[in-house]
Amino acid sequence: MTRASLDKQPHEVASMFDGVAERYDLTNDVLSLGQARLWRKEVAKAVDARPAQKVLDLAAGTATSSLPYARTGAYVVPCDFSLGMLRVGKQRHAWLPFTAGDATRLPFKDGTFDAVTISFGLRNVQDFDTALREMHRVTRPGGRIVICEFSHPTWTPFRTVYTEYLMRALPPVARAVSSNPEAYVYLAESIRAWPDQPALAERLRGAGWSKVAWRNLTGGVVALHRGFKDS
Question: Is 160 flagged in the annotation as binding?
Fold first, then answer.
C-alpha cells in the first residue's frame, strides 16, 4: 500500500493517487457522507464558467469536477500530476483534453485562462505558495481563482467531533471502500495540518490575488476561497 507523508514529496503524492484512481470518486462520496457532490455544485457556481471561456481545473483527477464547466460551453482543461488518475479519466471522458502537469510548474503560457480552480488538491502540493503564484501567472488579467479545500469548522464542539471522525472513523471506512486505505490516513492528517480560512486568504493575497474572500460550506468543513487577478 502507498501513502504520502506530510512533507508531500511529489512522487509520493502522485503514486498515492495513482493507487486510488479506480475507486476515488466512489470513495469520496462515501467518506463525505454524500456531501462531495453538493460541494462540487457550489464550486461550479462560484467559478461561473461561460461559453467560450477557458477554465483550468487543477488536481482534476478523473475529471468529475471538470464536467460542469464543459456543460456550460466553456473550454475546460483537466490537469493533474497523477498519471493513474488521468488514465482513468481519459477512459471515462475521452473527449476532454487531459493534461499532465505539476501545479508548481504549470505547462501553460501567461494569461491563458479566464478561470483557474482547484478542489481538494492544493493541500497536497508541497509548495502551495508557488502553486498560487503559478495559477496567478496563467490567469488572464481580470480572471479569477476558486479554491475548494477542507478547512476548519467554525463551531468548536462540531470541530472536536469532526476531528475525531477524521482520525478514528475515516480510516476504517476507507478500508471498507478504498483500494488503498493508507492513503486516506494521510488525507486525514493533511486536513488537520492545513491552514484555517483567514490564513489561506492571506497566502492568496501574498501570491498576488486581489479581492480575496471565502465562504464556508458544511459549517467550515470545507471553504471556498475566491480571488481575482488585477487588470
Answer: no
